[in-house]
Amino acid sequence: MDNKVASVNSLCPFCTLAPERIVARTEYFHIVEDAFPVTEGHRLIVPGRHVASLFDLSEQEQESIWSVVAQVRADALRMPAVSGVNIGINDGAVAGQTVGHAHIHVIPRRAGDVSDPRGGVRWVIAGRARYW
């Protein structure tokens, strides 16, 4: 492992990932199969060092992560029938973050995977997105 990704918390599930869950690695990040995927191909981009929030990453790491997200998105769009992607960050427990290690979800979407996909991330607070 690169020494830039060496900070580890032995109680954190992302700091102690099973090697078979890691799809790829970059200088700062792991691309990981989600343990509880909401669609086929659901991936996480996880910093190799333990930080609670993406905003705890260095400026260089914050810039780098978006290149990784773009690549994981491009990979998802090459999967059969995938024609859209949700990209999500839960930053803090009240925002739904259940693992105290920063990560970004990349969730491939297929036509018909839900009856009405309008609203996307606005539906995190059910019933509050009242556009239609």
Brief account:
The chain is built from 1 helix and 5 strands, in the order E-E-E-H-E-E. By secondary structure, the chain is of the alpha+beta class.
Task: Write the SSE topology.
Blueprint: E1 22-25, E2 29-33, E3 43-47, H1 59-77, E4 82-88, E5 104-110
Antiparallel strand pairs: 1-2, 2-3, 3-5, 4-5
Predict the CATH topology: HIT family, subunit A
* Strand order, largest beta sheet: 1-2-3-5-4
SSE topology string: EEEHEE
Backbone shape: globular
Q: Tell me the CATH architecture.
A: 2-Layer Sandwich
Mean pLDDT, to the nearest integer, reads: 89
The CATH C-level class name: Alpha Beta
Total helix count?
1
Relevant CATH superfamily: HIT-like
Q: What Rg is obtained from the alpha carbons, in whole angstroms?
A: 15 Å
Helix content: 10-25%
The biggest sheet, with number of strands, parallel, antiparallel or mixed sense and barrel status, is: 5 strands, antiparallel
Count of DSSP strands = 5
- Uncertain runs are 1-5
Question: Top keywords for this entry?
Answer:
5 strands; HIT family, subunit A; alpha+beta; 5-stranded antiparallel β-sheet; 132 residues; 14% helix; disordered N terminus
What does this structure look like?
With 132 residues, this protein is an alpha+beta fold. The chain has a single domain (3-124), classed as HIT family, subunit A, CATH 3.30.428.10. It has one helix and five strands, in the order E-E-E-H-E-E. The chain has one helix at 59-77, and strands at residues 22-25, 29-33, 43-47, 82-88, 104-110. Strands 1-2-3-5-4 form a five-stranded antiparallel beta sheet, with helices on one face. Strand 1 (22-25) and strand 2 (29-33) form a beta hairpin. The model is unreliable at 1-5 (pLDDT under 50).
